[in-house]
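job 3f2a | input accepted
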Amino acid sequence: MPQLTFYHAAPSRASVVHWMLEELGEPYETHILNLKAGDHRKPEYLAINPMAKVPSIKHGDAVITEVSAICTYLADAFPKAGLAVPIGDPRRGPYLKWLFFQPSCLEPAIIDRAFPRKEAAPTTALGYGDYERVMDVLAKATGEASPYLLGEQFTTADVVIGSGLRWGMMFKLIPERPEFAAYVGRLSQRPALKHATEKDTRLQKEQDGA
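job 3f2a | predicted structure (210 res):
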């Protein structure tokens, strides 16, 4: 029986972790939650994640929630996959920066742009600063990616940042800058992402038809 249990719903942020798990190549058990049916708010799942969100994972007795935390944990727990930058490597700093840039800068900037406040918040009050700066920083990083954010090594940072850019462009929430399109295009060729996307598409169709 797999040591890993993945609490999943499609479409949702859990698809990021789904891609990550496929990249790992380790066996895992998937526990599907139907968000429309409110499975994520039932007591048995709230005992796993009291925030009533997906994804979550269990690895043995450890329970991990929040996308970037899950992906970072998995990369460190399964080093054979080569998705982490080890402690002591100077690239560990930029690696961690990108892992936290997605939930602290990219996603909040996108959501604030999609659902504007009646009055604009002061730039100094926003953790990400301003939307255009976030886009410019990412455009520079993806434009310099060769072929990935940290060079030749594909890492968890590419899973997390790449997922944010794919989602943002898919829903027209960020501009399709040439740097973004080229970088995401390279990521889209990865077999693990293709496999996870195909599985999520089937899952969504099954739930919509239920």
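job 3f2a | Residues 30 and 174 are 31 Å apart (CA to CA).
job 3f2a | closed
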